[in-house]
Specification:
The chain is of the alpha/beta class and 489 residues long. The chain has 15 helices and 14 strands. The protein has helices at residues 3-9, 15-38, 48-59, 82-87, 109-128, 144-158, 173-181, 202-212, 235-245, 260-272, 282-286, 300-309, 317-358, 385-397, 444-481, and strands at 136-140, 164-168, 185-189, 192-194, 197-199, 217-223, 249-252, 277-281, 293-297, 372-376, 404-406, 411-414, 417-420, 433-437. Helix 9 links the parallel strand 6 (217-223) and strand 7. It is globular, with a radius of gyration of 27 Å. It starts with a helix and ends in an 8-residue tail after the last helix. The modification N6-(pyridoxal phosphate)lysine is found at residue 284. Keywords: Cytoplasm, Protein biosynthesis, Pyridoxal phosphate, RNA-binding, Selenium, Transferase, tRNA-binding.
């Protein structure tokens, strides 16, 4: 409804009523105008009616929704199912063009505008979350691992002789496979144990650079968010090393946007040294479906270079999901979620500490990890890996998701590289442990219920263990009395 249509409406319905409706419409349009003018996340969240009005306005700007459109090409935004069309708000053309994911599509002005606005709003959120000097970013419809691969492939053109990527160890398959998929050889640098924490071995990183030669190294691939007892890499020191040897630096910031500490590390690293790009997941940080990531950096030309490396058009779904979410929350709503997450982290830490003490265990001291916590499982060490892994399966069947139980000495081979002590980020971590994390969206009820069920599982395991121990002792006595070997117990 434009002003002319409202004027015509006054001939049908009382003008005072129409003017009231027109003013209500202008309220929606004013919010949309502010978004277009500023390109920032609104401070207060929008209503669903405003968001749907905005998305419908965008959709009618795409050629597949033109009245009387006659499409004779191979890609005309045709959709067989009306349910699918509604699911995507009839924004069917996706984003980008065959040569650049950030390019404008002549046939899809609305989808192109959606793409540009999403990238602008997300950039604003990255700044609000702590990386004030970030210059550019874009949403890519791939999860974190493949997005890291895209960064490495872009660097290949800048450093054609490079073969190696230096990688302080973190036991997570996708970031390792990202380097393999890009065609590079990961150089795994083991962490050093400081108290309970596993931290970056800076001396080992520098030795590897000198040993391999800086010109043969594509980049240093560091990590912020991770499972305790590993903690975020020493980003400032690594950034300084990268600047010293003129080596690119890519940061895996998978779920670090929700942590002010992780974002501060990136900001400081860029200030004192070199960080070329940092990659973060959409689903882990913004509570949207899996399938998208944000690639961001401090040099706009390099981020544009990465976006041009993406082959072909791309799905608009991740961009649409995160834009709807941020418009719903507003900047204040998102900051509130981050504040609540931090408060619940302290609550989870205290609850785990109390539970650990009640069972003769302890909460591992990992103050440099702002999201993940770890509780020792020393009491199960004598019974071997089976008791530890059994605890994990017990929790899962009792609908406690996300808790990770880490036994000692597990080996895992990934793309020809064998990791000893896999999942513990170390070949020789001193004890088995259980992980729990306070991630964005968690509630106090989640923590309370998890602790209650974990307590029951630990008590059940101890009873089972005592019965097994009693049986073994009786068996040993019988075998000893009959002068038989004890090796088969």
């Amino acid at each position: 409804m434009n002003s002319e249509n409202f004027s015509l409406s006054e001939k049908i319905v009382s003008p005072s009523y129409i003017r009231q409706g027109s003013q209500a419409r202008r309220g929606h349009e004013q919010l949309i105008r502010h978004l277009l003018e500023q390109g920032k996340c609104p401070e207060e969240g929008w209503s669903e009616s405003t968001i749907e009005l905005f998305l419908n306005e965008l959709a009618v700007m795409d050629s597949n929704n033109f009245l009387g459109n006659c499409g004779v090409g191979e890609r005309e935004g045709r959709v067989a199912s009306s349910l699918v069309a509604r699911r995507h708000y009839r924004l069917i053309h996706g984003i980008g063009r065959s040569g650049d994911i950030a390019a404008i599509q002549p046939k899809a002005a609305g989808s192109s505008l959606l793409n540009k606005l999403t990238n602008s709003v997300v950039l604003d959120i990255l700044k609000l979350s702590g990386v004030r000097s970030v210059a550019s970013c874009f949403v890519v419809p791939m999860a974190t691992g493949m997005s890291l691969t895209l960064c490495f492939l872009t660097l290949r053109h800048r450093r054609p002789k490079a073969r190696y990527i230096i990688w302080p160890r973190i036991d997570q398959k996708s970031c390792f496979k990202a380097m393999i998929t890009a065609g590079f050889e990961p150089v795994v640098v083991e962490n050093v144990l400081e108290g309970d924490e596993l931290r970056t071995d800076l001396e080992a990183v520098e030795r590897k650079i000198e040993e391999l030669g800086a010109e043969n190294i594509l980049c240093v691939h560091s990590t912020t968010s991770c499972f305790a007892p590993r903690v975020p890499d020493r980003l400032e020191e690594l950034a300084a090393v990268c600047a010293k040897y003129n080596i690119p630096h890519i940061v895996n910031n998978a779920y670090g946007v929700q942590s002010s500490k992780c974002m501060h590390l990136i900001q400081q690293g860029a200030r004192v040294g070199r960080i070329d790009a940092f990659v973060q997941s959409l689903d882990k940080n913004f509570m949207v479906p899996v399938g998208g990531a944000i690639i961001a950096g401090f040099d706009e030309s390099f981020i544009q270079e990465i976006s041009k490396m993406y082959p072909g058009r791309a799905s608009a779904s991740p961009s649409l999901d995160v834009l709807i979410t941020l418009l719903t929350l507003g900047a204040s709503g998102y900051k509130k979620l981050l504040s609540e997450r931090k408060e619940i982290y302290s609550f989870l830490a205290q609850e785990l500490k109390n539970l650990a003490s009640a069972h003769g265990e302890r909460l591992l001291h990992t103050p440099h990890n702002p999201i993940s916590l770890a509780m020792s499982l020393n009491g199960f060490q004598a019974e071997g890996d089976k008791a530890v892994t059994h605890l994990g399966s017990m929790l899962f069947t009792r609908q406690v998701s996300g808790a990770r139980v880490i036994p000692l000495g597990k080996e895992q081979t990934i793309s020809g590289h064998t990791f000893r002590g896999f999942m513990s980020h170390s070949e020789t971590y001193p004890c088995p442990y259980l992980n729990a994390a306070s991630a964005v969206g968690i509630t106090r009820e989640d923590v309370t219920l998890c602790i209650k069920r974990l307590d029951k599982c630990l008590k059940t395991l101890k009873k089972e263990g005592s019965r097994v121990s009693h049986f073994e002792n009786k068996t040993r006595i019988l075998l000893w009395e009959q002068d038989l070997p004890l090796t088969d117990i």
